[in-house]
């Protein structure tokens, strides 16, 4: 059951692949949204969101602007992840979640929503390792948190994994492969936005993990 109370939400990555769809949906549903953006990106945000201009890699540029948010949504990530971007995962994804966790915890945020990744998986080991480190940081902070764990989100500009779907459907028919197929099968952009919105609206007590099978089933 969805908690209808409006939330005060602070979003990093609000102009990215997921954020530019999530932010207007949250606003439409009556939530107050503040977005951290780089200088020059303010106009890319939808009307109705509050803007904080800063650097996601430096908490000093945004930590004093999180309050009175009760929910923090971390969407920062290197676009189009690939094994060749291992260094960027550590210099951008990992640094940004470290800074966000510290800033959100100090600001008294009650619920941290983290776009993570399916674990374990046979690919993208550097990416998985960084996201696992991010989850550990959040655990250690003591904040209530939701980890959203898709392996890949299908949508505009992200269509090639559709070619792999027949293999996932085949593996679903094999009992020994079924659990892995459910965990690793790509999800759609719409499904992921729905999962993020419902996570914002239903904060857990402790840590909640939303796997790909649950993202698809919402």
Architecture overview:
By secondary structure, the chain is an alpha/beta fold. The protein is 39% helix and 18% strand. It has one domain (8-159, 187-217): NAD(P)-binding Rossmann-like Domain (Rossmann fold), CATH 3.40.50. It contains seven helices and nine strands. Helix 3 links the parallel strand 5 and strand 6. Helix 2 (86-106) runs parallel beside helix 3 and helix 4 (165-172) packs across helix 5. The longest helix is centred in the middle third of the chain and has 21 residues, at 86-106. The radius of gyration is 17 Å and the shape is globular. The N and C termini lie close together (12 Å). The model has no long low-confidence stretch (mean pLDDT 91).
Characterize this entry briefly.
The protein has helices at residues 19-28, 86-106, 125-141, 165-172, 175-184, 189-201, 212-217, and strands at 8-12, 32-37, 50-53, 71-74, 111-115, 144-149, 153-154, 187-188, 207-211. With 218 residues, it is of the alpha/beta class.
């Amino acid at each position: 059951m969805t908690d209808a109370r409006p939330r005060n939400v602070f979003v990093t990555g609000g102009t990215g692949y997921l954020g530019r769809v999530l932010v207007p949906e949250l606003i439409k549903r009556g939530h107050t949204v503040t977005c951290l953006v780089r200088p020059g990106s303010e106009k890319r945000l939808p009307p109705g969101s509050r803007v904080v201009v800063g650097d996601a890699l430096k908490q000093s540029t945004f930590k004093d602007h999180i309050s009175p948010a009760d929910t923090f949504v971390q969407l920062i990530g290197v676009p189009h992840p690939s094994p060749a971007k291992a260094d960027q995962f550590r210099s951008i994804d990992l640094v940004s979640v470290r800074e966000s966790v510290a800033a959100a915890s100090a600001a008294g945020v009650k619920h941290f929503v983290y776009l993570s990744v399916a674990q374990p998986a046979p690919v993208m080991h550097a990416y998985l390792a960084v996201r696992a480190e991010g989850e550990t940081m959040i655990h250690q902070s003591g904040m209530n948190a939701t980890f959203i764990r898709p392996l890949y989100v299908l949508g505009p500009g992200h269509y090639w994994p559709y070619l792999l779907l027949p293999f996932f459907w085949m593996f679903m028919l094999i009992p020994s492969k079924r659990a892995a197929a459910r965990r690793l099968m790509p999800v759609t952009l719409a499904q992921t936005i729905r999962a993020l919105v419902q996570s914002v609206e239903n904060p857990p007590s402790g840590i909640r993990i939303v796997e790909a099978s649950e993202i698809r089933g919402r």
